[in-house]
Amino acid sequence: VLSNDFHQRPQCPDWYSQLHIVAKGLYLKFQIWVMRSTEAQDILNIENLDKFVNISEIPPENKLIELTETKYEYIYDVYMAGSRTISETGFAVCIFKNNISTEEHLFSLGSCNTVFQAELAAIDFAAGWALRNNAKVNIFTDSQSSIVAIKSTNPRSEFVNNIKRNIFNPRQLISVTWIKAHAGNPGNEHADLQTKLATEMVVQLNYPAPYSCVKLKINQYIMGELEDYWKNRESNSILRVRTYVDKVDKKLLIRNKFLTYFLSGHGPFPHYLHEFNLLDSPNCIFALVGDADNITFDCSLTKDYHFKRPVDAHKTT
């Protein structure tokens, strides 16, 4: 009976109260991505944000794009690469004629743009260059995901669909071929070197932030709010856990219920059960406080399973 009563009661009521933070984060993500509300403008600027499109509204000719592979009679070969540092994204497009680089175009993107977007933007730029110069070019990319996105008949991203539409017009002038990265191809290696410089370029192209950026910003918001909650909450359970886990960390996922019992102090301990009137006394049979520390480090009944009591400096993760 005691065991059933214990398991039916909330183990960590303070932890459950944090769910409102996660719920608010999901609400803000909906407001940003779906409603385009300025309510969360301090988290992410909605003015330059990608969006999902209705597949049925995409013109049929733009849904299925067949990419021609290498045409050896084409004069120009174009190699490209995208890269990202901690906070910057960019791409490089290198145009070769007779195996000699004749033009190099380097651009930086926004801090929210991804390498995937940079690789697609590079293909878009190369296709535009072919159209502007009425030149037939072979485009080589080591981004297989970009080719898959262009060939897909149902991409939801407006950014991807705009790229597909831009490629549709010069499709007779270009071929797009996947090449293996870091395989010793001189053109590809040259583009890789140039793209490292692209993130530092002053010339910046304006592409919308993807959905992944929204998720990242919301996750950062949730973690920040949880951190504030964690540091400022003064309940007994959180004060105890904080002596061992001093910060919010998504990588620290505890699945062992016995470890949870110990860290929170919420478990089958006389001291905890006494709080719910399930035992008459908070003490163990030796008249000591029957809490998690007593059971883990001191109690004579559990001495064969004792751990060495950590010093305060070594408690936290």
From TrEMBL:
Gene3D superfamilies for this protein: Ribonuclease H-like superfamily/Ribonuclease H (3.30.420.10)
Pfam families xrefs: RNase_H
Highest taxon of source: Eukaryota
Domain named RNase H type-1: residues: 100-200
UniProt xrefs under PROSITE patterns: RNASE_H_1
InterPro entries: RNaseH-like_sf (IPR012337), RNaseH_domain (IPR002156), RNaseH_sf (IPR036397)
Molecular functions (GO terms): nucleic acid binding; RNA-DNA hybrid ribonuclease activity
Protein name: RNase H type-1 domain-containing protein
